């Protein structure tokens, strides 16, 4: 096992190596652009040794904000023909070439963490970022709510691309006319670790729909077959709203509307509780059908400030019986696959969000256990994109930015 000092040095070097001048890529080759929630986590990592660079990361992310407040999930700062689908496929008209969808809005939370480490000098930086983060929050509240829960319009938005949550919805989609395309991800990593062609056809189908509709949100609401209320988006949006409220108060802003939004989102959380499953679940807005999945996103309830004894009991069981928790899918589910992306592997980034929430809600024992298990996983198996929850074997990309940031900001700190 590598020493903690060496691991910290390695983690810092990964962030430096993945720096492209104002923004970081998740890892070289596989992901050559700036990804939204990856970048926010990178800022948290940078704040541990270079707080100026942390602010720049967040500021660069919001340079790509659309006029309506949306912050895209990918910013294509420099065209790279090795990535598909690139900016020509998305055909968006933002200030920077981008995708037309979002990702979990954790930027506000990470910005608050950065500010807490640089309160005096960062005051002016936060004052500039705050209205931009608020505009994105308002965009989500306008376009993505259903019964108070936050919906996704593309599996990529959640960051959990091929999670079983989307299987039933995707199965109803016809992608027979999607046409020919060449994936690039499987040229970089083992195809057994990635989404299947069945999934990818539907990902591209939804991109083609958005492009045809010119990314008009009202038109997409009316026509898209994919609209799923999801724990990832709901819990991260609720947490972001709480952090925006706290930052707004500190900046002397009127936060009454954010307070009302928090109550609305809290009510929406209850619509994601699948009592038959005994967990927070995704539901198809069109059909009303439950996904029937307890994922690692289900455990983000504490991150959102939502207490749930049943989920805590589930987490304690997972911590006890899975060597390297938290798996992205219930190990007892028929859909579980220990290596295929979001159908089973453990992700350090989600572990950190769960762990931070547990600590906030007073579950110190569970928070420390998860942090230690995540630290051991990274120490034993490196800074991989994700890991087999039973063997710990690394999977996906290597020298991964957010895994390094997780070590610096959370797992390697104790």
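-> sequence recovered:
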């Amino acid at each position: 096992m590598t020493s903690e000092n060496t691991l910290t040095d390695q983690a810092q070097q990964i962030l430096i190596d993945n720096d492209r001048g104002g923004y970081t890529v998740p890892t070289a080759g596989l992901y050559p652009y700036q990804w939204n929630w990856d970048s926010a986590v990178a800022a948290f990592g940078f704040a541990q040794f270079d707080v100026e660079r942390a602010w720049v990361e967040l500021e660069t992310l919001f340079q790509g904000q659309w006029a309506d407040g949306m912050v895209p999930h990918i910013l294509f700062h420099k065209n790279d023909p090795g990535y598909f689908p690139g900016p020509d496929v998305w055909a968006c008209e933002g200030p920077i070439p981008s995708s037309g969808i979002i990702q979990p809005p954790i930027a506000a939370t990470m910005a608050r963490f950065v500010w807490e480490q640089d309160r005096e000098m960062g005051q002016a930086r936060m004052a500039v970022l705050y209205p931009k983060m608020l505009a994105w929050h308002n965009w989500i509240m306008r376009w993505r709510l259903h019964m108070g829960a936050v919906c996704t319009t593309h599996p990529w938005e959640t960051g959990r691309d091929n999670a079983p949550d989307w299987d039933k919805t995707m199965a109803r989609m016809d992608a027979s006319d999607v046409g020919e395309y060449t994936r690039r991800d499987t040229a970089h990593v083992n195809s057994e670790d990635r989404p299947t062609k069945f999934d990818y056809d539907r990902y591209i189908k939804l991109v083609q729909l958005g492009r045809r509709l010119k990314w008009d949100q009202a038109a997409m609401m009316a026509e898209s077959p994919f609209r799923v209320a999801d724990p990832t988006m709901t819990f991260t949006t609720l947490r972001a709203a709480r952090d925006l409220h706290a930052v707004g108060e500190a900046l002397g802003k009127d936060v009454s509307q954010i307070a009302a939004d928090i109550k609305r989102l809290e009510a929406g959380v209850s619509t994601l509780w699948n009592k038959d499953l005994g967990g927070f679940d995704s539901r198809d807005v069109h059909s009303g059908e439950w996904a029937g999945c307890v994922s690692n996103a289900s455990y983000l309830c504490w991150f959102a400030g939502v207490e749930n004894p049943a989920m805590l009991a589930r987490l304690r069981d997972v911590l006890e019986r899975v060597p390297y928790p938290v798996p992205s899918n219930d190990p007892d589910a028929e859909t579980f696959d220990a290596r295929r992306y979001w159908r089973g592997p453990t992700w350090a980034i989600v572990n950190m969000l769960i762990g931070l929430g547990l600590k906030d809600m007073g579950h110190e024992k569970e928070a420390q256990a998860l942090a230690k298990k995540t630290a051991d996983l990274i120490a034993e198996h490196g800074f991989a994109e994700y890991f087999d929850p039973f063997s710990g074997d690394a999977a996906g990309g290597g020298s991964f930015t957010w895994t390094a940031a997780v070590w610096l900001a959370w797992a390697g700190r104790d």
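The chain has one domain: 4-411.
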